[in-house]
Predict the 3D structure of the following.
Amino acid sequence: MNTKKKLVVLTGAGISAESGLRTFRGNDGMWEHENIEDVCTPEALRRNPKRVKDFYNFLRKGLPDHQPNAAHFALVELEKKLGDEFLLVTQNVDDLHERAGSKRVLHMHGSLNSLVCKKNPNHRFEFMGEETMETRCPLCGASTRPDIVFFGEQPLYMDEIQKALQECEEFVYIGTSSVVYPAAGFKSYAKSCGAKVTCLNLELPEGDPYTDVAIPGKATEIVPKWVAEFCK
Ligand code: OAD
């Protein structure tokens, strides 16, 4: 993919909220119910791998109960229009973008529907079942871990994302609280590289110096409208 990007979209948990998936922060968010230190750090995986695997098994098992919504589908329309000039980066580990039909999507925080080999992190493979302590890498037989980027670990595809941000004409962030780095830094980086920066979110960032256009509302309402306007 050498084409310069016209548009880079970053999504967060807010785009899947109306599909019934919990966001992470705020009222009734995931991190009100679970301690990050128990399920989302390399130390937790070392200390109690079964606890960590069971947590992501539970989330993986619940995925089929949730369906992509109008915001996910609208982003598919953008991709159809722009082709290789479009890149979707998501912090989400659900599969709703793919089930809506998105193809050019990078899961920078990993994915529930895959596992990673503990011995060779390049061995990443699709996985839909229940990961146990006996689950083995199909490529080398080593033990496995959830394909989730834990706090303190390096997100995936950063070189590709950085290049796309450097060259894009517009950067749009949707349904993210913009508090987790490096994703939270994408807007300032894109802006410094010359992109227009747009935010679509339930709550808008107050006086954010990097955001040119901010549209408040529910993702299922504002994303399709914004896409229709963009595609005019
Ligand atoms: P957050 O839970 O931090 O933020 C969700 C954002 O979505 C908030 O700004 C909400 O206002 C907004 N929101 C909620 N409902 C919405 C709706 N219907 N329409 C539009 N916006 C809505 O989730 P993220 O920013 O995605 O990382 O969190 C970033 C990372 O923190 C996650 O990827 C996860 C988490 O810890 C890992 O697990 C590694």
Q: What stands out?
A: The mean pLDDT is 96. The chain has ten helices and nine strands. Strands lie at 7-11, 86-90, 105-107, 110-117, 124-126, 144-148, 170-174, 196-201, 213-216.
